[in-house]
Each structure stands twice: as C-alpha cells, then as structure tokens.
Amino acid sequence: MARTRLGTHIGVVVDDYKMDPAEPGFRDFVMELLLQHKVVFFKSQHFSPATFTEMVGQLGRKEVHPFRTAADVITGISPFQPYPEYPEITGIYHDEKVTGNLNSWHSDLNWREIPPFASVLRAVRIPPQGGDTVWANMAKAYDSLSDSVKSELDELRVVHDWVQIYRSAFKDNEDALRRMQEQFPAQSHPLVLTHPLTGERLLFSNKVSGVRIEGVGDEESRRILDMVHRLAWRPEFQCRFQWDEGDVAIWDNLATQHYAVSDYWPHVRKMERITLEGMPIK
Known about the structure:
The chain is α+β, with helices and mostly antiparallel strands. The protein is built from seven helices and 15 strands. It is globular, with a radius of gyration of 19 Å.
C-alpha cells in the first residue's frame, strides 16, 4: 500500500489497498487518514452499489438526502436516486443534455440543522478529459488570517439557506416553496466552527448556502462573507484530483469545501455519493 500527499495542506492518495468493510481496523484506518488529511482518495475500488453502501456504513451512519419522498419531488431540486433499493446513494450524472452545475465552491448540505460530517464519492464513469474535483482546507484558510480579523469573525454566526440554491425551481409554484421552507427552514451556524473531532478552528460558510451574517447590516454582511468565501479560491489551501473510474474519495465536509470542474461537455460523467450523519455544532 502506497500513500502519496496530493497537496501541501490537504489530500492523500492511497494506492494498492482494497477497501474491505470486514477488515478489522478498517474504520479506524480510514478515519485517521481523513482527520489528518481532510480528503482521502482510494484508487481502483470498483464497488457494486451494495458493497459501496456496506463500506460507507462501516464509517458512520448513512444519510438519505432530505428531499426524498414523492411529495418532495420538485423538478430541478430533488436528488437523483439511481437505485431504489439504496436510497442513500445520490447519483450525480451529467451528459450532453444535463450539463455540469456543481462548479461553485461549496460544502454538502450545510443548510441542514446538522450538516453531514463527511461525504463519500465514487467514480462510475469518467469523461475522456476533464471532470476533476478541487478541495480546499478551511482550517488552513482560517489560520492564514491575522489575529485582528480572527477576533472580528470568531463570535459571528451565518445563516445558511437552500432557497438561494434552488429558488428558480419554484418560479411557478410559490405554495411548494413555502411548504419546503417550512419543512427545511434556514439554519444559523457559527462562521468560525470548532471541529467536533479535531478541535481545529475553521471557516464554515460558502458562497452557495451562506446568505447573511446575523446581527449586522446588509453591506457589512456582504463584506465579511465575500472575504471569507474568497479564501477557498486560494491555491495554497487546495488539492486537485484527476479521477479514474473506480476511484473513491472521502472528505471531511465540515473542514473543507469542494468544486467540481465542469470542463467535459458534451461527455458523460457519472458519480455517486453517500453522506455520513454529522453531529450537533455550536
């Protein structure tokens, strides 16, 4: 088994290792790598859907995307679940007609009351070129700030709202929008989060779901959020992964943001994701 650092501050690639959920110590091995490197890439796994769900289940409690019932299905918002028998698997499929739309810095489902701790993504079909994913270490982004800026941010809270992402899907259905807002209201989270497992301080907001700072005016809120969100763009905090079919990535969804590079149209790119249940954050 070979381990290769991918970025200076984030990412490790593991070669010549078969992810076997029955292997003693499997969970401890993966979690140690995950908490140290923030994102871990396992090459050439080639799981079936059944084995994929079994493997992820050894790492923690699997989640089903909250927009999942027939009553919740809204065109343009509901996740695609390719396997009815495995509803925890979300298909992220793009092709000539359904173009890549995840090319913004984000974390998964930060707008939930308890955001997922980790996400696990496997490559089912990869385009002949393009389709990389980039991750950013938001603990290192926080560390880069001056003490005076840290003290300005440390006690602030940011509102996360899924409506910013999906508002256009409800342009002709205000009743459905109100119903979904009642079911999944906007959530307030610390702008600077203390990671519940590592104790690291990190920036916990992103341009996709972070909509405003509580208790300040609109102009000041925008100034702060723009400064925080742009830190993810700095290459010093990033790693970039070029996928092969069968690869699996596991990332700390609290400590990182990611960006799916949409440079492969009109080719097909098929990825499948399972998220792991988080823990209350304060």
